[in-house]
Design a protein that fits this description.
The chain is of the alpha+beta class and 256 residues long. The protein contains two helices and twelve strands.
C-alpha cells in the first residue's frame, strides 16, 4: 500500500509527458510550402510538404489551387514515382505581360493522384515539387489552398487564411512569402546565374536553387530543434517521476 502514491506520481508524470508531445505535434504537421519564401519577380522551385495525420488511412491525392488574382505564367511539376500529376488551366480576365508577351491563361490547379497500391502511410510525409514563375511583384504572399484526400474517403481542406493579430487557423492554407528582389535583369525577373534542372523550364536559376536549399535546411533545423526540445522535456519529466518512485521505495524500505 505504501507504494501506491509513488505509482500515482509516476502515472501523472507520464500523462503529462504524453500531453506535451501531443501539443507539440501539430506545430509542424500542416501542409506547407518549402522553402517558405522567394524573391518577387523571379522563378523558384518549391515543395508542397504533405504529412499524413490519419492513423488509420493513407493519403492518395493532393489538390493545390493556385491564386488567379496573381497568376503564374510558368508552372511545371517534377515527376514523382508512383504519382500522376495533372495541371488545369483557366482563362484570365486580364492578360499579364511576361517578357513582353501577353499571357491569357494560367495554371489554376495541380492534382497529384497516387497510383494503385501507392499512398502516404500513417507516420510518413511526401513532398510534391513544382517550379513557379515569374513570381508577382505586387504582393508579399501567395496563398495555395490545398485539399488532402485519404483512401478512406476523408478530405482535409487546408484552405483557411491566417489573419493578422489572430491565432493560426486549425487548417491553414500553405503560404509562400515574397520578398523584394535585390536586383533585376530588366525583364522583371530576378537576375541569377547559370540554368538549373530544378527549374524545369530551361530558365533555371542556380543561385535561387541554392537559396531554396539553404532555406529548406534552416526549416528542417528549426523543426529538429523543436522535436529535440520536446524530447528533452519528456525525458526530464520521466526522470523526475523515476527519481520520486525510487526515493519513496527507499524510504519505505527503511521504515520497515
Amino acid at each position: 500500500m505504501r507504494s501506491l502514491p509513488a505509482r500515482r506520481t509516476a502515472a501523472v508524470a507520464l500523462a503529462a509527458a504524453a500531453s506535451v508531445v501531443a501539443l507539440a505535434g501539430p506545430a509542424f504537421a500542416h501542409v506547407t510550402v518549402n522553402p517558405g519564401s522567394a524573391e518577387q519577380g523571379g522563378y523558384t522551385a518549391v515543395d508542397f510538404r504533405v504529412p499524413n495525420e490519419n492513423d488509420a488511412a493513407g493519403t492518395v491525392k493532393l489538390e493545390v489551387n493556385l491564386p488567379l488574382d496573381h497568376p503564374l505564367a510558368s508552372v511545371r511539376t517534377q515527376p514523382l514515382p508512383g504519382w500522376t500529376s495533372t495541371v488545369e488551366k483557366a482563362k484570365l480576365d486580364k492578360p499579364i505581360k511576361v517578357h513582353g508577351n501577353d499571357v491569357n491563361e494560367a495554371v489554376a490547379k495541380i492534382t497529384w493522384t497516387a497510383d494503385a497500391g501507392v499512398k502516404v502511410a500513417p507516420g510518413q510525409f511526401q513532398e510534391f515539387r513544382v517550379s513557379l514563375g515569374p513570381l508577382p511583384t505586387d504582393t508579399d504572399a501567395l496563398v495555395f489552398k490545398a485539399l488532402q484526400t485519404y483512401d478512406n474517403g476523408d478530405v482535409v481542406r487546408w484552405i483557411d487564411e491566417a489573419k493578422a493579430g489572430q491565432p493560426e487557423p486549425a487548417k491553414p492554407a500553405p503560404v509562400l512569402k515574397l520578398t523584394k528582389a535585390a536586383s533585376a535583369d530588366g525583364h522583371g525577373v530576378t537576375a541569377t546565374a547559370t540554368p538549373s534542372a530544378a527549374d524545369g523550364h530551361g530558365t533555371g536559376h542556380g543561385d535561387a536553387a541554392k537559396n531554396d536549399t539553404a532555406a529548406s535546411d534552416d526549416k528542417a533545423s528549426d523543426s529538429t530543434a523543436r522535436v529535440l526540445g520536446v524530447v528533452g522535456i519528456v525525458v526530464g519529466v520521466i526522470g523526475t517521476a523515476v527519481g520520486v518512485l525510487g526515493l519513496r521505495r527507499r524510504n519505505g524500505g527503511s521504515a520497515s
